[in-house]
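A reminder before we start the practical. When you read a complex entry, don't treat the lines as separate problems. The point of joint prediction is that each chain is placed relative to the others, so the output describes one connected object in space. Small molecules and nucleic acid strands, if listed, are placed in the same frame. In the example below there are two entries. Take a minute to note the order of the lines before looking further.
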Amino acid sequence: MSDALPTVERIAPREGSAGARALRGIARRPVAAAGILGVIVILGASIFAPLLAPYDPAMQDLSRSLLPPIWDGGSADHILGTDPLGRDVASRLLFGARNSLVISVSAMLLGSLLGLTTGMFAGFYGGRLDSLLMRVGDIQLAFPFILLAIAILGTLADRNAIDLILVLGIPGWIVYARVVRSRVLAEKEKEYVMAAKAVGATSLRRLRRYVLPSVWQVVPVIALLDVGFLIMMESTLSFLGLGLQPPASSWGLMLAEGRKNMMISPWLSVLPGLAIMATVLSINLVADGLADVIDPRLRKGSFRRRLLRTQASAEGAGGDRPSLLAVRDLSVEFPLSDRVVQVVRDVSFEIRRGETLGIVGESGSGKSVTALSIIQLLDSPGRVTAGQILFDGRDLARIPDHEMAALRGRRIGMIFQNPASSLNPVLSIGYQMAEAMRRLKRVPVKRIESECRDALRSVGIGDPDRVLGQYPFQLSGGMNQRVMIAMAMTAQPDLLIADEPTTALDVTTQAQILEQLHEITTEQDTSLILITHDIALVAEHADTIVVMYAGQVCESGPASRVVSDPRHPYTRALLESVPRAELEAGVRLKAIPGELPDPAALPVGCPFAPRCPSVMDVCTEVNPPPFRVGSRHSAACHLWAPEMRKEVVS
Amino acid sequence: MVLVVFAVVTIVFFVLRLTTGDPARLMNPPGTPEDIITQTRERIGTDKPVLAQYGEYLWNMVRGDMGTSFRGDTPVREAVLNAVPNTLSLAGITVVIGAALALLLGGVAAWRPNSLLDRGVLAYVALAQATPAFWLAVILVLVFSLRLRWFQAIDLTGPKSFVLPVTALVVTLSPVLIRTVRQSLIETMGEDFIRAARARRISERRLFLVHGLKIAALPLITLIGLQLGFLLAGAVVVEAIFNWPGIGKLILDALASRDFPMIQGGVLVAAVVFVVLNLLVDQVYGLLDPRIRVHAR
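Here is the predicted structure of the whole assembly.
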């Protein structure tokens, strides 16, 4: 899509430090907030375990063995009951949390430190060191390292916490190293690092000043997830008897012991598992929340067309004109998190049966959004907020979804700018065409193949059989666009919308495709809306031209009139920027100075005023409505206001 | 790939000999006379220098001989080959069910992001991700075999024996798969070609089930390849709990008795299985993705 919306990043306000923003962001998410609470509780439990625990976790009392927890008939002396040796389960769980956290956090620190350093050096110095390190990482990732860890720990005669930290921590390096390395590589390419290099900043300073800050953004999330994973691994190893050794408290060990008494006291197995689950869940929730805050892209709304049901659609329903499509005062807006962006404002035009209408404008002028609102395929959260889209007497902005679905494809077809990405890359052309045939025309199965072949021939493809068996990536852009046209034309729609159909193609192919479009639409008496940034193109192919700027129509009229006698300064500027054969050699092409205004912050008055060569005082105060300048020809410019015209004439 | 297997074998070989005490001493009860220990040492071959042992080990490996267990006279190759199918069937069924579940739940979640269903699936994902496989296995045994007596708790006795271990493994494998399918489906549904197909009146359901899922299934396959290591590790634990006669249990038992040839054999086979499965995953990916399939021709 050429009319890309301004990205959220550009608009979103940035204030406060990264950490503060992250915290505020997480606090706003109840799930993540619950995770934080959980983490705080577990941290507290493990830090204050000696104070909180009612008993020494290793104190045995065989007279009190296997007491049930309090809700299962136990006493308040041992809230969570006791194990076979009479040790207090609650105390053991608390100390288990402590051990588990100490081991996993230390292992994480070890792994991350190792990974951060190696990643930094690999990324920064590159070359042989880099390829060696990454190769080692690949090999490590290519093998289930956990098995090796098990083998190593299993053979150690006398394990302690340090061994566990080493075996669990070291393999984690590669995850950090890869992330850091890619960040360093990306950062290295950036100009400001280049500039710093030029003024002689030392390598290490560069690392610290420029790379670390960007790395700090991602590492916390990875580290949190890593801790959760390590807690799981630590308890798994203990459970298998490969972790901490018996007198110590460990959730995995408790579970292994509990398992032996599963029948008599099932809680011994259940409780440590719940402790692990709660811990890992809390940590993961915080990590998710953090990732969400750092990268909000993933929180997309669902695709839903929003119907506008405010005004009755009766008012302009019929009319006496034989127009196929009449767009009246169409406004489209995109509500963002903190503001609403008006992308299209009060756009009106109409197109008659068999006619070709060209919509011209720069990227961001709202032309594609206009087209997408006709066929009701606006990206969420975009919505039509005002105006009518009268197609054959019905207002497309207000008809129910199922009625629109019946029109879409059958009576209104559309082809898009980038033919390569407009076809599903993993389905063959034949499959996609057959699918379209069945949906649009209800072609019986046995005739589908021949119909597909005919359709491809009709857009000038000489060897349809070969093309049908191929995938989009095997075809040229021009071929893909022909396929798109063939599919769009299967149902012989009344209206075809072509959004920059040739922009992605080379010049010779462009001409062929346009010729093809012209031919096939004329043949089938289909009206064509041709959207482009190239005014020369519509001058040649369209009957009527609509020039759009900053979401508004600035001039519209019969193509010959608009091209030969442009009334809006913007149209003039557009025409002057196009190379033309009739121009004498030596006449310089003019570029339009300035750039499109930000749709989120449009100037008061005429949006073109800041770039307009004929700007007047009134232009910066009042946004001009369209003024009639000839038969079916209008321009939204104060130069053509009735009171101004008198002055110009006089 | 051969390099990976070789590296693993070598590492395990030396780690075993550097970290462990004398296996000959461990194999005899404490207080055994020195000459008997020396005899044991000669029998199992640990009296020779480590490098000589390594050379012999590699040479035998090339000839297809994986040695003989320190305990008894079981040839390692036989023991290992008996165990492999049990682990493979466990892992295979897990992958198939896990992938199906991921496509189903990931699809359900992505159909209407942020809907109640989506939240439900995400809640399951979060919970399952935090559930330790071994604990789940223990709880499953507790509830379904000890309390309800629906399934036998341990041993491989027939198709019914698969239910509990596979459930435990699927629950641990599924969260990451579901997440990936969901994410990739949501992304795919925002692609240009989906909009273009909408303009051709292709139904939402069809777009989702054919156009979307076919693309979303591709990262799933890659991911399964990446998760195989964790799956094998999970299998070790689950095998230990269910007394499943697979590679994991073989390695654990061998570790407990310091049975070097058996440990080496088990790890070697695990590495080979892992490598082969990864190659297989690549092949499947190539078959499903025409972009690779066509270029490979």
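Discuss with your neighbour: Chain A has 24 helices and twelve strands. What might explain this?
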